[in-house]
Amino acid sequence: MSKDIVLDQNTPWTEIPEMLLPAYLETWTMVGIVMTLVIIIGGITGIALFNSSDRGLFENRKLYGALSAIVNIGRSLPFLVLMAAIIPLTKWLTGTTIGIAAAVVPMTIAGIPFFARLVENALNELPPEITSVGRVSSGTSLQIIHQVQLKESLPSLISAATLNLIAMIEYSAIAGTIGAGGIGYLAVLYGYQRFDHHIMIATIITLIATIQAVQFIGNRISASLKHA
Amino acid sequence: MYEIRNLNKSYPLKNGGAAQVLKDINLSIAKGKITAIVGPSGSGKSTLSKCLSLLEYPSSGELILDDTVLNKLSAEALRQQRQKIGLIFQSSALLKRRTAAENIALPLEFLGVVDHQIKDRVAYLLENVKLSDRANHYPAQLSGGQQQRVGIARALALQPSIVIADEATSGLDPDSTQSILKLLTELRDELGLSVILITHEMDVVRQIADDVAVLSHGEIAEQGSVLDLILNPESAIGAKILPLHIPAVLPTDHTIFSATYSSALDTPLNWLSQLSIHVGYGLDVHTSTVEVISNATVGKIIFSLPDALYNKHKTQIESQLAKWNVQFKVIQSAQPCSQHAAA
Question: What is the ipTM of this complex?
Answer without folding.
Answer: 0.84
